[in-house]
Design brief:
The structure holds two protein chains of two kinds. Chain A has one domain. Chain A has two helices and no strands. Chain B is an all-alpha fold. Classes of the chains: A mainly alpha, B mainly alpha. Chains A and B meet through helix 1 and helix 2 of A and helix 1, helix 2 and helix 3 of B.
Chain lengths: 65, 128
């Protein structure tokens, strides 16, 4: 299974949290916001594939065409 | 042991969500979403076995097949609607969850109308 995706996203979240704090402390607020945005977009790209696969599976199983 | 895997994934994901919730709530949302998808995908294999059994049973007792496939469709739709509504509710959007559920109810109603009509016809036939 793709359980390591959970670990990946958790790691990504912690990394972005640290980056956000560091950039905020050094006074670069706009870069801090930008890093958070990029992190969210990367995580969304990982998740959305799996969701579409899940929906395809459910569609095939219950014959929802 | 499928059940140990499912419970383990749930516990690990819960720990991550608790860690991330204070600093980055959006990643906590992604992790809960992903956990739901993974657990659901694991269950789907078992579910297909149940559906095959139901299928053979329905064929054996000679129910009209369109009714059975309608029921199957309604069950699948209910699963998907529940999944989506639960995710929005986790993210704190109660109103969007309500709208998703409303949409699911309406579409299920539309699917169920042929069965309702058949029932009505049967009642009219029985009555003199």
């Amino acid at each position: 299974m793709d359980i390591d995706l959970i670990f990946k996203i958790a790691g990504l979240g912690m990394l972005t949290a640290v980056l956000h704090t560091v950039l905020n402390k050094s006074g670069k607020e706009e870069y801090a916001q930008l890093t958070t945005l990029v992190g969210v977009v990367i995580a969304l790209g990982m998740v959305i594939n799996l969701i579409s696969k899940l929906f395809d599976n459910v569609k095939a199983l219950f014959r929802l065409y | 042991m499928e059940i140990l895997k499912i419970v383990g994934i749930g516990i690990v994901a819960t720990i991550f969500i608790v860690i991330l919730k204070n600093t980055r709530p959006e990643f906590a949302l992604y992790i809960s979403l992903l956990t739901g998808v993974i657990i659901f995908t694991m269950i789907l294999g078992e579910l297909s076995y149940v559906i095959q059994t139901l299928n053979t049973l329905a064929r054996r007792v000679n129910i009209e097949f369109s009714y059975f496939s309608t029921i199957l469709k309604i069950i699948g739709m209910a699963y998907i609607v529940e999944f989506g509504a639960q995710i929005s509710r986790d993210a704190g959007e109660e109103s969007i969850a309500m709208k998703i559920e409303l949409g699911g109810k309406v579409i299920i109603m539309v699917l169920a109308i042929p069965i309702l009509l058949a029932l009505m016809e049967l009642i009219i036939k029985i009555l003199p």
